[in-house]
Amino acid sequence: MESFPFYLDSTGQRQFAGGQDDWRSAAQVADQCLEFLQDVDEELVADEPRSCYNCRLRRWTARSFTCMGDGFF
Amino acid sequence: MQIAISIDDTDNLESRGTGALASLLAEEIELRRWGRSHYVTRHQLLVHPDIPYTSHNSAMCFTADIVPEYLQSIIDYAAGFLDRESATGSDPGLCVVPIDRLERCADLIHFGHRAKEVVLSKEDAYALASRSGIHLSEHGGTGQGVIGALAGAGLRLSGNDGRLKGCLPVAARNGCVSVAELRAHDDVDEVRSIDGIELSGDEQVRLGDKVKTVLLEGKAVLLIEPLAGAADGVAWQTCSKQRLKRF
């Protein structure tokens, strides 16, 4: 993902632009994030341990997730 | 008698997960000699702006074979446990299904499937529980967790939804085991190719860092997939977390 990985949705929340299957970007973003917090084991979905998809501060939405942290911004 | 215990919405961003509480409940039933608990399964429910959830909206469920006279003791214990252990700000719900006495199992399963597709209400959940003889109770906050708790029980009873909590401990030589050895594991009912290819017992499987099973046709199924660039007679590998995400 070349552009900024998040955008503000209509409710002002930070949506991940990569959707739910951009495993590479999710890992890259988490790698740079200061607030990454690994979720409990049963909620881990990415093979890379450090991935936004495995972060407790991601809140899944129908197509992607919103980030509830400030570590990447 | 057999029961299903399902809980939902017990956590917050800092607390233990709902799965940890389900495991503790399952252990306590055995410690108190009320019955024998089985594995815990995780069931994904709808994520929608109108549904309050912490970060994923999943319910956790397990079944147990219990001594019938302890049913009320188990319900009382589980209710008190959720009152004590649920996290601040959560909206916990508890569902206990006496499976042997359940008259309208299809309705419960249908509720579970609907909870993956549409927004349901507490009234929907209580109406079904009441006419089906299912215990359903709230343990703090808005009590919205009763919807997910009931849905989780329905999805568990469907036999075709969710991943089993935890990972399998498998002893392996150089990271590989045979299909026959995996089939013999206490916590594996069946080993299947994700593409439906028939497997012989002597096929070799490379294990990923975490080996997980899913619930299919009422069984704990270990799914494997072809190993690209197979060498040394190892043609298969366990499915990655990413592949199992849809379960």
SSE order of chain A, as H and E? EEHEE
Major sheet: arrangement of strands of chain A = 1-2-4-3
| SS field, number of helical segments of chain A | 1
Specify the oligomeric state.
heterodimer
How large is the share of residues in beta strands of chain B?
Answer: 25-35%
Unreliable sequence segments of chain A: none
Give the helix/strand class of chain B. Answer: alpha+beta
How many individual domains of chain A?
1
The first-level CATH class of the largest domain in chain B is given as Alpha Beta
Number of strands of chain B: 12
The whole-number mean of residue pLDDT values of chain A reads 92
Q: Give, in order, the helices and strands of chain B.
A: EHEEHEHHEHEEHEEEEEH
What's the count of strands of chain A? Answer: 4
The number of distinct structural domains of chain B comes to 2
Largest sheet of chain A: 4 strands, antiparallel
Judging from the principal axes of the Cα atoms, what is the shape of chain A? globular
**General form of chain B:** globular
CATH topology value of the largest domain in chain B: Alpha-Beta Plaits
Instruction: Evaluate the radius of gyration of chain A.
Output: 11 Å
